[in-house]
Amino acid sequence: MADAPTKTDYRSTVFLPRTDFPMKAGLPQKEPAILARWQAEDLYGQVRAARTASLYLSATGVLN
Question: What angle do CA 25, 30, 34 make, to 5 degrees?
């Protein structure tokens, strides 16, 4: 039986710039604040109000 192949270290072949800020977005921590802001601004309601224009269906798709 053959030996398992060793893992290759690709860190030296990938260009990742050095920055002063963290590259991690932290979405799990930021998402509750983003959703709360959207609810406070009633963003969904604004989108629904903007889409109240009547739509006409045709054989080729939706026309405004």
Answer: 125
**Single-letter amino acid code for the residue at 10:** Y
Residue 64 to residue 51: CA distance in whole angstroms: 10
Helix (H, G, I), strand (E, B) or coil at 63: strand
Do residues 64 and 53 touch, judged by C-beta distance below 8 A?
Answer: yes
More confident residue, 23 or 49: 49
User: What are the start-end ranges of the H helices in 1-64?
Assistant: 27-40, 43-50
Bridge partners of 56, per DSSP, are 63
30-59 average pLDDT score: 84
